Amino acid sequence: MRFQQIKELLHYLELVHHQLGLCYRRLGDQVDSERCRMLLVYLQGREDAASAHLQEYASQLGESVRETWLDQCFSEDMLPDIARCELSASARTEEIVALVCRWEEQLIGELGHLARECPTPATAALLDNLARLEQTRLTQLVHGAHRLDDL
């Protein structure tokens, strides 16, 4: 079991979103389909915005919440999988959306688990809010992908 503070967890989440943005930029160079490239550009901007939002959110937290220690951390580091991600040149938008959904669902699951294990109500509420935010982002992604398919 590894212990960490809320501020470290928020920094990790910020890093995950930043690395996802870089990954989507890299994947955009690997695909042939213009539609897939458009989706990846959208995803890149989405992750850049999420990273900036988390940075701002962390700066606004009270010292007591930021310094709270957690007994748990993410069960699996997402960064190596993000760095290794590749797509074939013939990838379809459905494959990209499925990949993004897996990462989003992993984030939601990990945040939900941490919220249930939190030592204080304030940190549990914070992590629940972050999990809900990720769930909202996932819902918006799925709706946005369906709209892209309708074009």
Structure description:
With 151 residues, the protein is mainly alpha-helical. 75% of the residues lie in helices and 3% in strands. The protein has 6 helices and 2 strands, in the order E-H-H-H-E-H-H-H. The chain has helices at residues 6-28, 34-60, 63-66, 79-84, 93-116, 121-150; strands at 4-5, 69-70. It has a two-stranded antiparallel ribbon. The model has no long low-confidence stretch (mean pLDDT 90).
Q: What is the end-to-end distance?
A: 48 Å
Across the major sheet, the strand order is 1-2
What's the average pLDDT? Answer: 90
Give the biggest sheet. 2 strands, antiparallel
Radius of gyration: 16 Å
* Low-confidence regions: none
* Structural class based on helices, strands and sheet pairing: mainly alpha
Helix content: over 70%
Give, in order, the helices and strands: EHHHEHHH
So how many helices? 6
In total, how many beta strands?
Answer: 2
Rough outline: elongated
Strand content: under 5%
